[in-house]
Amino acid sequence: MMSYGQFAKHLLVLAGLFALPVLSNAGELGPQPPKAKEKASAKTECVRPVKEMRKNHMKLLLHKRDETMREGVRTKEISLSECIECHVTPKKDGEYPRIGEDEHFCSSCHNYAAVNIDCFDCHSDLPKDASAHMHTLNGNNPHHKDLASKDSLKKETLDVLIEGGKK
């Protein structure tokens, strides 16, 4: 029969064996935020190192906002539109994700952290080349909900809209 001391030692060793995988991944404990998609490479680096951007991007953007809005200074560096141009990439189906979708570069972390951002109340959440893939006159676009219905418009009005106002 095993003594209490021997049992305690065995229990301690067993607990250590179960704890080993957890301790070896100590930097990765808990849920992990998703990795953001990006076009950056060694040739086209971000304006700051990744660790700094993860920690301070909001301060940089707010500083840039103040410079632009109050002082009229407009540069490409630390520009929200430049961030979007580089970091927002198409999904597997070729469509660009919109703000709020986990696939959107900004939303990938902000959704995880439950942080509400209002940048895109005014700014576009899509890169310039996304316009070639989007904005068709159909019922999937909430702005065209009524236009997509054949009953909602006369044929002539729809033709004018499609042809850009030319008659």
Describe the fold and architecture.
The structure is a single chain. With 167 residues, the chain is mostly helical. The chain has two domains: 50-134, no CATH class; 136-167, no CATH class. The protein has five helices and no strands. The longest helix has 22 residues, at 50-71. The chain is elongated.
Q: Strand count, sense and closure of the main sheet?
A: none
User: What do the pLDDT scores average to?
Assistant: 74
Content of β-strand: under 5%
Q: Name the helix and strand elements from N-terminus to C-terminus, one letter apiece.
A: HHHHH
How many individual domains? 2
What portion of residues is helical? 40-55%
Number of helices: 5
Query: What class would the helix/strand composition place it in?
Result: mainly alpha
Secondary-structure blueprint:
Blueprint: H1 4-24, H2 50-71, H3 80-87, H4 105-113, H5 155-162
Question: Main traits of this protein?
Answer:
5 helices; 167 residues; single chain; mainly alpha; 0% strand; 2 domains
